[in-house]
Amino acid sequence: MKAPTEAVEEQPTGPPGSPASKTPRPKDPRGTRKKRGTGRITNTLLGLASAALGLLVWVVLAGSGIEGFPGPVSVARRAGELIADGTLFEDAGASLKRVLTGYALGVLLAVPVGFLMGWYPVVRRLIEPWLQFFRMVPPLAIIPLAIVLMGIDETPKIFVIFLASFLSCVVSTFQGVVSVDVTLVNAARVLGARDPQVFLGVVVPASTPFILVGMRIGLGASWATVVAAELIAAQGGLGHRMQQAQVYYDLPTIFVQLIAIGAIGLAMDRLLLLAERRLTHWQERR
């Protein structure tokens, strides 16, 4: 009597090289979901470990004898006081308003200018020298000139933020347009696509990752610029509060403002990263 044989998964039959012999097995979606879930858990654990390590380093520095260096407890206590009287929210709101206004204006202008520079060589030759010239001048160096010409109200602060975000985003957009694979453009033309169709169907999607990277870089430049502008001349904002705390050697307040700037900037960057993943889901990632 023969022993019962184990069930064997059916394989496609056919001569070698035939379509039947090359039929791929369907992927198991449960395995894919399991891998994604495991990856999320791993990333979360690594993030928590990184935060714990940073807190540990902070505690060690605070206890190392550095004069005046505040520890997490004193900073948390000071943050509670600033939150209770509403000062932290007022300062964060003032800085956030300036950043969003200048940043939005810079991005809205940078994207079309970058597309024009990348699509039309004549526009590129006219604008690029000036663009590279102003890129070599830090926006912070323009703050004194902007204050003299525009006064000390909101206009000069928003202008330098606009300039910082514009210069970062326009270069990235321009680079994205000129990096589009020429083969894709030629293939679209061969299939009968006109310039507007090629631009909207090929150039814009291929340039989107570059634009989003430029937006993230511009966001960081905007926050750096607004803090510097508020340090020089402002009636409110996180940078202004830091400048006042410096006069009285109030290190816990300075730390609270630094943490608020980093936390708000990190949250905005994560939102841009989420938008990047949604808009470029077709792109292969590591």
Shape: flat
- What Rg, in angstroms, do the CA atoms define? 27 Å
Q: In DSSP terms, counting alpha (H) and pi (I) runs of 4 or more, how many helices? A: 10
The total count of strands amounts to: 0
What percent of the residues sit in helical stretches (DSSP H or I)? over 70%
Please write out the topology.
Blueprint lengths: L28 H34 L9 H13 L2 H33 L1 H15 L3 H12 L3 H25 L3 H9 L4 H38 L5 H10 L3 H29 L7
Helix pairs in contact: 2-10, 3-4, 3-6, 3-8, 3-9, 5-6, 6-8, 7-8, 8-9, 8-10, 9-10
Structure report:
There is one protein chain. About 75% of the residues lie in helices and about 0% in strands. It has about 290 residues and is mainly alpha-helical. Helix 3 packs across helix 9, helix 6 runs antiparallel to helix 8 and helix 7 runs antiparallel to helix 8. It starts with about 30 loop residues before the first helix and ends in a 7-residue tail after the last helix.
Give me a quick take on this structure.
The protein is an all-alpha fold and 286 residues long. The protein contains ten helices and no strands.
Features:
single chain; 286 residues; mainly alpha; 10 helices; 76% helix
